[in-house]
Amino acid sequence: MLTDIIVIGAGTAGLTAAIYGQRAGKQVLLLEEGIYGGQIVNSPQIENYPGISQISGFQFAMNLHEQATALGARLETGKAVEIIEHDNEKIVRTENEEYHCSAVILATGAKNRKLGLEKEDALIGRGISYCAACDGAFYKGRVAAVVGGGNTALGDAEYLANFCKQVYLIHRRDAFRGDAGQVERLKDRENVTLVLNSVVSELIAGQRLEQIQVQDVVTQEEQQLSVDGLFVAVGQVPENQAFAGLVELDSQGYIKAGEDCRTSAEGVYAAGDCRTKNIRQLTTAAADGAVAALAACEYVSQ
Ligand code: NAP
Asked: Which atom in ligand 1 lies closest to the alpha carbon of residue 151?
């Protein structure tokens, strides 16, 4: 069966593309390797989406999914491992299936970057987490640390401060990348300690994480902090290698595409965090979803 548009990735960009594609009268299939929603489900609270003063990331994703599927978009689970062109069709292969379509929108987002420390993988679920919204509740009344200086780290620290005894926010510089207003709010919280110009250099653990070694990058001094949980929020990395033979990637692995979301391959578009861009926000992901879908609809109608 030939589908009009296949969208790879059901995060904010992908789900928005599905909404726009379906509303334009095209049949959209969303392929998602995990659970729909993308990165934003990890955000405890969103406060910068126009028209919605406050909403949890999880609720936001649920709303998007409901809207897309109510319009007729189909969601299937599968990891796209290859896309090839054949007889004016595009064939998307997952590990078990093969799908044919006229246009493809790559909305693969990005994955959590790791600190790269010894024992980091082994301690996931035993003190190390990449999602405060998912795992934060396990640390009620306990001591948590967040590492990172972007909006995710700030949001995580603020969320955890609501119920943790103590929250350390560890950032490698003395200025934050994330919203200044949120930084000021954190400074007012009695149970939040900013640990600046510092990196986590070692994880100290028995069965679970017990302490973290923190090094001041200016003085080189080291201290050990006793923590029950460490929330890693040091940004994302793209995962587009499977498409490297189809579309051009930049040196960091992002899909080369401008504001029109067009890639180097005809009929293949890139939307959201997976493409080359300066500002990666919910609003820009949603905007990309709309732009890519309308371009794909035009291509399909030719
Ligand atoms: P980010 O903005 O890329 O910030 C990553 C932070 O981690 C930076 O402060 C960076 O330090 C630090 N970092 C990177 N590698 C590190 C390492 N190896 N060790 C220690 N620190 C490291 O990532 P993000 O906070 O996840 O946000 C990603 C995008 O999503 C951003 O555009 C953000 O604004 C957006 N976002 C939006 C919302 C929202 O719209 N509500 C919510 C969350 C995130 P430096 O600053 O020194 O580079």
From this structure: 25
Q: Tell me, what's the pLDDT at 45?
A: 85
* 274 classed as catalytic: no
Q: For 217-250, b where at least 16 C-beta lie within 10 A, e where not — what string?
A: eeeeeeeebebbbbbbbbebebbbebbeebbebe
The reported pLDDT for the residue numbered 52 is: 96
Quick one: tokens of 245? 């033979």
- Residue 294, ligand 1, Cβ within 6 A: no
CA-proximal residue: ligand 1, atom 9 (nearest): 149
Residue 72 and residue 63 in contact, taking contact as beta carbons nearer than 8 Å: no
| Tens digits of residue pLDDT in 131-140 | 998 899 999 9
CA of 297 to the centre of ligand 1 (A): 33
pLDDT > 90? residue 42: no
Asked if residue 28 lies in contact with residue 271, where contact means CB atoms within 8 angstroms, the answer is no
CA of 235 to the centre of ligand 1 (A): 4
Cα–Cα distances (Å) from 23 to 3, 31, 37, 125, 255, in that order, read 15, 19, 20, 41, 26
> For the chain, what percent of residues have pLDDT higher than 70?
100
Ligand 1 pocket, residue 280 CB under 6 Å: yes
Does the beta carbon of 3 sit less than 6 angstroms from any atom of ligand 1?
Answer: no
297 catalytic residue (yes or no) = no
Query: pLDDT grade, residue 86 (50/70/90)?
Result: very high
By C-alpha distance, which of 84, 108, 79, 106 is closest to 95?
A: 79
- Number of helices followed by number of strands (H, E) in the chain: 6, 17
44 pLDDT band, cuts 50/70/90, is confident
Q: Is 253 left (phi over 0), alpha (psi -120 to 50) or beta?
A: left
d(CA 149, CA 114): 14
The yes-or-no answer on residue 273 being catalytic is no
